[in-house]
Amino acid sequence: MNPLNELLQSRLFEGPVPAAEVMALGLYHPEHGYYRRQEGPWGFDGKDYYTALDLGPLLGQTLALRLEAAWERLGRPARFTALEPGAGRGWLGRDVLNAVSGPFAEALIYVHRDDNPAARRAAEEALAPFLAANRARFAAEAEPLESFTGAIFSNELFDALPAQPWRWDGERWTREVLTPAGPEWQAADPGEAGAWFAARTDGLEPRDGSIWCEALPGLVHALASPLEAGLFLTVDYGEAADRLLAKGADLRRYKAHSVDGKWHEDLGEADLTADVDFTRLATLLEQEGMTQLSHMELSKWIRTHAPLERWGAEWMTLPAPERMKRTENLLQLTLPDMMGSRFRVLEGWKGRVE
Ligand SMILES: C[S@@+](CC[C@H](N)C(=O)[O-])C[C@H]1O[C@@H](n2cnc3c(N)ncnc32)[C@H](O)[C@@H]1O
């Protein structure tokens, strides 16, 4: 039997287990958790899901421009630290480091932060030349972060934090739990989550509901407080709080490139994920002293910040298969049914502007 299912069965003797606890066990059990296993989940054949980084370097190239603009805005400091929590294989950092040049490249230090052992091994390979040149380094999740100037960026970090689904049944709040008979919605006190949801709707309908990520304030604080000045940028799927509520946001399971709602099955062998509440993330960042917070669809962010004309001209000089790959990469990031509308980019700013 799957060791995590065994653990869960013994936990179920004590009573129903909230879905967020099942998600925490499935993803982060120190030995058998999906993000603590020796083999990584990312990629195409034989893997569970891919991210924007599997599609090519364009997300990293656009991000590199946003980081360079932040460096300019800070008055070109001699050192610009770019911290990536949930950095996975380090491919986004690699793509950024490959894209930068000149004085900004000299100032930029990339910090990979993710305790996932499979990710760490892949990142050692992807970042090898930059590690050797002291332009990149690893930081363990428990390592206290010293104050720095620069940026914090992430791709698909916040969707991987354990989250609890809540649903309004017409009279009261219910939360999704696992019982020996399977998943159920049971009445419970939503506490802070209930007040948050209530303030984001002008009338709840039965089946309205959203997810609540308990760990979000702690993680936002741990990341944002050492940033003295600079940019916060995150790419993820999700919506504003009112839209999540109206949609009845829920947990999803990814396995072998299929998605379903069976979050309680194949624990440790399937990805579990939840939409990000961008309104709450922005509110928490504001409480950490960030300003100018905004989020937009990935497609709009790419169209606003990517040098499309320059890319078009440069790609014309590439061999046809390379040119096709770049074009496909751009389409994946911008077409609504691909990543363009499903993903959003949130940006915020902290501290001084020169
Ligand atoms: C969905 S994966 C995304 C990986 C990578 N950013 C990508 O796009 O391919 C989420 C990653 O976040 C990591 N993670 C979760 N919580 C974290 C935390 N508090 N600090 C750093 N990494 C974390 C997990 O170990 C996992 O590797």
TrEMBL record:
| Gene3D superfamilies in the cross-refs | 3.40.50.12710
Task: List, alphabetically, the InterPro entries matched.
Answer: NDUFAF7, NDUFAF7_sf, SAM-dependent_MTases_sf
What's an example Gene Ontology biological process for this entry? methylation
Pfam families recorded: Methyltransf_28 (PF02636)
Q: Which organism is it from?
A: Geothrix oryzae
Single GO molecular-function term?
methyltransferase activity
Protein name (database record): SAM-dependent methyltransferase
SUPFAM superfamilies in UniProt: S-adenosyl-L-methionine-dependent methyltransferases (SSF53335)
* UniProt keyword terms in alphabetical order: Methyltransferase, Transferase
